[in-house]
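Journal club side-thread
Mid-discussion, someone asked how the predicted structure for our own chain would compare to the paper's figures. Pasting it here so we can look after the session.
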Amino acid sequence: MKVTKYLVIALVIVAILASIAWVLRDTIIQRISGPILQQYGLTVTGVSLDALATSNATISYLELEHENGTTITIDELTLPIGKSRTGTQVFTAGKVTIAVSSASGSEPLALAQLIDQILLLPDSLPNTVVNVTQLSIAPYPTIHELRWASTENKQTLTASVDSVDLSAEIIRTEQAIHEGVVSVRDAFANVAEQSVTASIRQTDTGISLSGASALDLPALASIATSIAVSFGITPASVEVRTGSAELEFDAEIPYDASQTASIKAQFTPSTPWQFVYASRPGVVTSISMESSSPVEFETTFPQLEWSGNQQQALLRVSHGLWSDIPVSLSNLSCETGPACFMDIDVAVGATDLAFATASRLALSAAQDIVFRDDGLWVHVHPGAELVVTELSGPDVALGRLDVRLISGATLELADTGWQFSAASLDADIQSLSLDENLAITAPVSLRNIVVSESDQALSATVVVDSPSSQATWGDRVIALPGFKGDVSLQGANMLVALATVGLQDGKEATIQARHNLDSGTGQLSIQDVA
């Protein structure tokens, strides 16, 4: 918004200097224009008049300084003199550079007043054209080929930033009511132009805007990526392949700059959305949104705070060995951070896992997700449930596994690895078989669970407690004692230290085991406890 503010001031400056361009000496220009510009908080600190013709004057260099320290320099400024034969006054500048003072950042931006000034430009500068070859305002990307033109009730603006072309048109339809259209397109990408229309109303308390647009998401994503690159931002590795949406929005911008301006928007999917995300080279996740409710979004500025929510969405997710997994999201809400909360339900039929196959997997959980600069943090709320049925593999078979999270759990993902931790979860194991003749059923409680992988090295620690168990051998059912103790894994080396629970006469035993997963070798020691 500061960019437009100084452009408006520059246009006023141009008009003032046009009236005194007949003065040939640079020092006299400074002396005359200085007092005139004081009402805008500006002073002329440098000027050089190159040429004076019958129809125009060329100022090779003009430097202005605002009272807050901001400087505006204009190179190769051409001003019309007298009346134009066509009735249109044309001003051109080779390069405009605005250096915004850091001190000006503490001042509240009177955005509504600035919009008022823009809307009134056709009155103050009617039938005027301003061409600027290059506009620079650090640290923002350079604007090229800027052209602003006005008639009695209309003004238009065109410009480009790298490969993105921008155009805008504002038409006064009634007193204090304007209609605006803003369009953007990526000149290098083969995507459709995106446009937003808005109604602009000047009220007693501020500016109200409302508008709508039909958005093509792949085109919008291409434009957003080009703009991000222009700002020196590395875009997330997200590709939007398909999808469209209807946009509706309302904005309220008060005249009182100490009050917060706000925008409320709603995106209603009109065709399915598909995204592809690469978390790192070779690791790709594909997400298709088959159906969803509208996405509601709200933001405030100049202190940028935002929030968004969606009641429900049905996704299809593919990642690695997983293909077209149905994922149901509900009560989705996100906010500045970014951070999100959601309820998630996953139900999968026959599924191939890395080590086995399962006839069904089901997961239900409420979770918080925080997106960090170096990775992802996920908190799973207590009560999350996982059900696995009919798991079978070369070395293991499982009739059913029910897991319920008693405490909360966290999952941290970073470039160097990941870590999962939980204070407590309960599991019900049914018919776990490591041998075709023997199956074990047992309730198990896991405590102080920590599983992590760093630099491709897996480690885990857990406290195990099972009050009782039973084994099935052929047609026989054998009651077995329970057990409790510690299990740990470091790389390929597993350590087990358990004690039995519930043996007759109070005589218990300890079980010590070492096993190397790579070599398949180890040691087992069982001792009675008197």
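Post-session note: The CA atoms of residues 163 and 444 lie 60 Å apart.
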